[in-house]
Amino acid sequence: MSLSTSSNFAKPDDAFRAILEAHRGLNDAQSADLDAALVLILANHIGDLDVLREAIALAQRRMLDASQQQQQQQ
Length: 74
Hints:
The chain is 76% helix and 0% strand. By secondary structure, it is mostly helical. The protein has one domain.
């Protein structure tokens, strides 16, 4: 299995909205805990260490790219 980076949702906005709604009313610590739990649950659902590693690498690259863009704008 390889990492799918295209949307698999019929309604991707609804999926994004569901994630946002899950955080409603939570403080920062609770929100971070929810994110961590969700990541672990979904990682277990994927069940493929190579795909998980690929997803981690992609997320790290995206964070680095965003950080570099912010620095360039300053």
